[in-house]
Amino acid sequence: MTRPVIGITMGDPAGIGPEIVVKALNNPAMYDICRPLILGDAGVIAKTAEALVLGPKVHSIAHPKLGQYVHGVLDVYDLHNVDTDRLQMGQVQAMAGRAAYEYIEASISLAVSGSIAAVATAPINKESIRAADVPFIGHTEMYGELTGTDDPLTMFQVLGLRIFFLTRHVSLAEALQLITRERLLDYIGRCTDALARLGVEKPTLAVAGLNPHSGEHGLFGDEETREIEPAVAEAKARGHLVVGPIPADSVFHLAKTGRFDAVLSLYHDQGHIAAKTLDFERTVSVTCGLPFLRTSVDHGTALDIAGRGVASPVSMEEAIVVASQYAGRINVVCPKLA
Questions:
Q1: CATH of domain 153-287
Q2: Which CATH superfamily is domain 1-152+289-338 in?
Q3: What is the pLDDT of residues 293-319, one digit of tens each?
Q4: 15-28 CB burial, b ≥16 within 10 A, e <16
Q5: Distances in whole angstroms, Cα of residue 67 to Cα of each of 34, 196, 202, 261
């Protein structure tokens, strides 16, 4: 099988993004599974590699077809958008936020044209994005808006466990208001469809419970009996393989052991805690529903350690692995390499 070209955004140039990308691509195993292409600034990548004393050749290119894609060469789709003399590592700055946003724009352009098979993203910094007057609060919102995708799904994957999220970046009080029969029914359908597109045959989805012991038939809250159980019943009637609500203290373990193909978490921390406790560094975020596949590390820019050479590349490696894995599945809605 031809190795897919995976576009790897450099992330915020003042954060750990450049470091973890360079370190990840110092691992020859990455080149066994894909053709990695850095979307960023060649000058920043060169300075990073030099500081880490890794010694790869930086190959600046204007089109993915020009890449060498061999270990020891860092192919960079070079946007020339960072003044390395003015870049302040570990600091919030508009130049860094603007550059990070432009890497995302480039990844979308290359993916929808079919020049890359999937995207793996390094972290961006929300304060730097705001300083650059970019009108988005995060990665997923950017990819959704710029591709015309309404409410893209987020799926975590870690050590075989897959977790979707009914709600994410809202307060817990607001999340409770969003746990409705209609929203659950919509998400159950979208989640099972996303799993099928990722190559999972006849996917089974488990819906997590909200209250202790899934409410014990109304003893500890009525959300299960009022909203969740009716949604699951209707989804089953529509032909979806879905079960629940399953108490949250056991559903993630059951999915990890193979009982279910994925879990629909009801709020942000419910799923995040399960994934990150299992393996913090290897938790990868997958954005489903875009015109192409996108994975991401699930950590921030870590400005406090940026430029010190101590950041771990494990999550970046995992994001590249998962992007390569799913890009090779025939059921993924993802452009082919031009």
A1: 3.40.718.10
A2: Isopropylmalate Dehydrogenase (3.40.718.10)
A3: 999 997 888 899 988 999 999 999 999
A4: bbbbbbbbbbbbee
A5: 12, 32, 38, 37
Summarize pLDDT for 56-76 with one digit per residue, the tens: 899 999 999 999 999 999 999
Classify residue 308 by its DSSP letter.
Answer: S
* pTM of the shown model: 0.86
Angle between helices 268-279 and 248-256 (to 10 degrees): 50
Residue ranges of the chain that CATH labels 3.40.718.10: 1-152+289-338, 153-287
Cis-peptide into 245, omega within 30 deg: yes
Structure tokens at 280: 């913090």
CA angle 82, 287, 297 (to 5 degrees): 55
- As a whole number of angstroms, the distance between CA 258 and CA 168 comes to 25
